[in-house]
Amino acid sequence: DLSVAGRVTVTGDKEEKESFHSRLARVDRPILRISNLAIHLNRGVNETGFQFNQETQTVPVLATEFAAQSNKTVTCFFFIKKKKKNLKTMNSSIVNIFAHFLHCDEIQFNESTKSPMNEDCHPMLLKLLAKELNVDPEQIHDFELYLYDTHKSCLGGALNEFIYSARLDNLMSCFVCLRALLRANSADSFASETNIRVLACFDNEEIGSNSNRGAASNLLLSS
């Protein structure tokens, strides 16, 4: 179960339209899923392994296409207790199917917004980001977002001795090293230390560290 988090560049309100601000955003619920073909439709996967095209088969699914042929708004009402369903401005028969799985009072999907990012990003995602930041979609001008696993970290095992979590090899080591460096300021050996204590944390280790932010860059060599 995936969601998005990162940095979003937005403009100010009506009085500060010319000003730009960078804000951190995180949608704290699953909104994306990278689907896989069922095994009975891919019989040879056990012999050949899962072979996939990174460009076409790892694209996350955001939603079904409710109104592909129209720019009108689709408003779906679904009340579980009252068993009352009311579909307004219905643009596709598929809405009838998926309305049964909507556990919300009202959801509005629109095919377009006035945001400068409308050509590069689905308007539904723009509306989710705008709602998270409490701004209008038109105020979003750029973003740098990453997918992340929404599953929470936890302790496991019969004696709760294992940590079940993603990113343990990188983020946890950065955390403990930084914590040790901060604690070293009060150590007795710090007064007589002749070397410079430095913590260097790099990105992109999982792809070979060859990026401009990786450990194989020329940052330390040119410093």
From TrEMBL:
Record has Hydrolase as a keyword: yes
Position of the signal peptide: none
GO cellular component: cytoplasm
Protein keywords: Aminopeptidase, Hydrolase, Metal-binding, Metalloprotease, Protease, Zinc
GO biological process: proteolysis
Catalysed transformations (reactions): Release of an N-terminal aspartate or glutamate from a peptide, with a preference for aspartate
Any GO molecular function: metallopeptidase activity
Name of one Pfam family that matches: Peptidase_M18
Necessary cofactors: Zn(2+)
Annotated InterPro entries: Peptidase_M18, Peptidase_M18_dom2
Transmembrane segments annotated in the record for this chain: none
Its EC number(s): 3.4.11.21
Record-stated family: Belongs to the peptidase M18 family.
Protein name as catalogued: aspartyl aminopeptidase
Organism: Reticulomyxa filosa
